[in-house]
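note to self: dont lose this again. the chain is below, predicted strucutre after it. 279 aa total, dont forget to put it in the shared folder this time
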Amino acid sequence: MLSMRRVLVAHGCVCAALLTTAAPGRAHEPSAADLGVAVTASQKRANLGDVVGFTVTVWNSGPMTAPKPTATMRIPRGLAIVETGETTCAEQTRLLRCQLPSLPDGRARSIHILGIVKPNATGTLRVTATARSTATDPVPTNDTATVALPVTPGTDLAVRLKAPAKAMRGAPMNVTATILNKGPRTADKVVLHLGAHKALLHTAPADRCRVLRQQGADQYLRCNLGTLKQGAQRKVKATVVWHEPALRARAQDFAVSAASAQGERSPENNVATAQVKLR
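---
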């Protein structure tokens, strides 16, 4: 073989000689791994305050192994990440980077993310995922994917809770929850939760309240109030039925919260509490 190469070079066939000797050197060429990425959301639309799940899937179409690929997600301002399924994920300045194990040809890896839609979110939230590795990617066009999540404009429900400052133990007593829709939209499927510590609450049938949970001497009601237009308000009056533990307590605690299908623009004012001193 060596003598044949010398003859070729001697006759001026340098190209042929180089081709002959270059064949064994293919192993030194950069590896190639075609990474692809897809991102999906757990719902097609979102309300303010919704917790939305996102799944980012990275795959390798080969032909070589992709060494330690990185998946990077660009997070929109209206979304806050609350949980990721990978311990190697780190968030910085609305970029979530996840280091994945090496992906052999034909293998895939998924990352599950939970995000909450912020109260000030508007328009459409777009989460963009990108996959990279140190291998040469022969098809870079599938390295980036985006999912779009339109946000339903929310409204602002505000609640107040009225109760006497002091009361006699065991004496008849009422507490009144008032819910106001400050707008700008009509609120659908309005729900009011009313809770009492060491007491039971009785409401009118028109308020459509039912016991959501009762634990010991504590009770929590869920009232389905239907639709509430902008500027409208609704009152729910509850009569307190005393429990034996409350007859020995120094104070009685109550709490109320409200929500709607549209989500909350100002969640800080849709919770209220009250405490009654007992004599």
